[in-house]
Amino acid sequence: MKISATLLSISTVLCGVFALPPKIRSPVGTQWSVYNHTEGCSPAACEYGFNIAWGSSPTDEPAFSTYCQGSDIAYKLQPCQDPAISSNEVSGFQNVTVVVQHFFETSDGAGHYVVGNYTFEDVDGNYPSAFGIQQSEVRAVA
Length: 142
Ligand SMILES: *[C@@H]1O[C@H](CO)[C@@H](O)[C@H](O)[C@H]1NC(C)=O
Ligand SMILES: *[C@@H]1O[C@H](CO)[C@@H](O)[C@H](O)[C@H]1NC(C)=O
Ligand SMILES: *[C@@H]1O[C@H](CO)[C@@H](O)[C@H](O)[C@H]1NC(C)=O
Known about the structure:
The protein contains 1 helix and 8 strands. By secondary structure, it is mainly beta. Residues 1-19 form the signal peptide.
């Protein structure tokens, strides 16, 4: 009992020192707009492309508008025309997940990664041409 109480207070102190939470107006819960989404699949791989935009908002994430393209066999985030944005597609069983990451700096010089994803059903080659991607997580740069 004594030990766990001590460990608890140590970890509380460590968190206080090393994990200062970023003080930003977080975009988590808002949505990026994807449109002109295309998907072209061969037996080897699927190539995708889409426009993605984010307007001004009451968060600290700056506006952007760019075009992303890539392949579902890159297995990593691929930079969009605006390299602050990167994307990937993960093909599952009758579904496809579009993953997007946005890197930005706030005026205090701190860097932030925002990530989000959207999954659609992929049956008979039908896919949506426009959708929103919910921003689900912000990570500060260590
Ligand atoms: C992309 O979408 C916009 C709005 O839906 C449309 O006006 C535009 O023509 C599309 N561009 C291409 C290259 O398909
Ligand atoms: C997509 O399909 C995979 C199986 O390939 C499954 O594990 C995953 O849960 C599915 N994702 C969603 C969001 O349905
Ligand atoms: C999609 O977002 C959810 C919620 O944040 C997360 O749990 C999941 O791992 C993400 N999927 C991919 C393929 O990144």
